[in-house]
Amino acid sequence: MQTMLSVRQYTLAQVNPELAPRLETETEFLPQTVPGYSAREVFEDLRKNPEYAEFFYKEATLNPTNLRDRADKFETQLVERFQNNPTLKELSGYRAAPAGNLFYIARPIAIAKQTCLRCHSTPEAAPKSQLTTYGSTNGFGWKLHQIVGAQIISVPASDVVDNTRKDFLVLMGIVSSALAVVMLVINFLLTQTVIRPLNQIAKVANDVSMGNMDADFEQTSSDEIGKIAIAFNRMKTSLVMAMNLLAK
Hints:
Layout: H1 2-19, H2 35-46, E1 56-61, H3 73-84, E2 91-95, E3 102-110, H4 128-134, E4 147-156, H5 157-209, H6 224-247
Antiparallel strand pairs: 1-4, 2-3, 3-4
């Protein structure tokens, strides 16, 4: 859409000034002077590429000079929404088409410059070649700053869905990888700080229960595991003292 806006601006700034004087002398209107015509033709050339054959661009207008730009029922609703809410800058969604659902993005087209009204204010002000080609019925009565149409680009919905699915799979892959790394780190930390010390305490407790009073519960930390080791050492000491008393 931004590219089409650039085509329109190029036509308005460089092509139109060169061809505009010929509009009064030519027998046929020169549509190349119209920014919307240039954008549509450039996009139609792009659609010759099979990769973009199902892409569509249209400057749908309620009262166009060129009837190929006339808005259909669906496009008319979009234009009217823009007209009823001038602060609305963009609409998007899905629409049905014979070849399948399409995802569209639409933006309002407003008359931003007084020079645009030369061909759209009244038939009397329009170039004679325009009246010869398109007649004096369509494309008149426009006003400055009026929203007259919508710039609409449509692409196959399957492309949007496929891209969304790919993005989702990539995101899930990243999340899954991150979770796997976190689980590995947590497992390593649990092994080093909980499981290994507890296994050592269990081994020493088993040795003590078998009569090996030289076995010692090593205190390697000051956390809960370390407190358990201190408690077991105190219990072992009490057990040794009790056994000594019994031996006497």
